Amino acid sequence: MTPAPIPDDEAERLQALEELLLLDTPPDERYDRVVRFAAEQLDMPVALVSLVDGRRQWFKSRLGLEASETSRDISFCGHAIMSPELFVVEDASRDPRFADNPLVTGDLHLRFYAGAPISTPGGHRIGTLCVIDSVPRQLGPVELAVLDALRELVNEALAGGGDEGLPA
């Protein structure tokens, strides 16, 4: 297993995340709607808005997963925040970075992961909108575009935008 790397802007990224005052807060319907819509439109059993702090990934919104957080070192989202591009793992059991990861070998049986990095208004990648399945999958261009568009809705919510345009 390859532990999630640490971004070069880690100190600034963590400060920006902390300034949002989102960690360990109650559910928020703005994020919950996006997560439900992502799961429905992409036919995924799990969808999350995940925020990556110094030691964990904490789920601001979650559907299909009981856990409210996991350790950062085993997180897929920790890998996804390294680049602004969508991060897709079609079959984690065949990917040397993740094959022996406890999220893959344990009860979750994670096989497919697609994470769209979310950013603060200042551009620091602080987490993801992600979808997960227990079977290997591929997303087509339309599905990738849907995930990318939903990421933009989360970014707008992070920037303090209203509910306009968020899925019902």
From TrEMBL:
InterPro entries: GAF (IPR003018), GAF-like_dom_sf (IPR029016). Residues 26-168 form the GAF domain. Pfam families: GAF (PF01590). This is GAF domain-containing protein. It comes from Roseateles agri. The lineage of its organism: Bacteria, Pseudomonadati, Pseudomonadota, Betaproteobacteria, Burkholderiales.
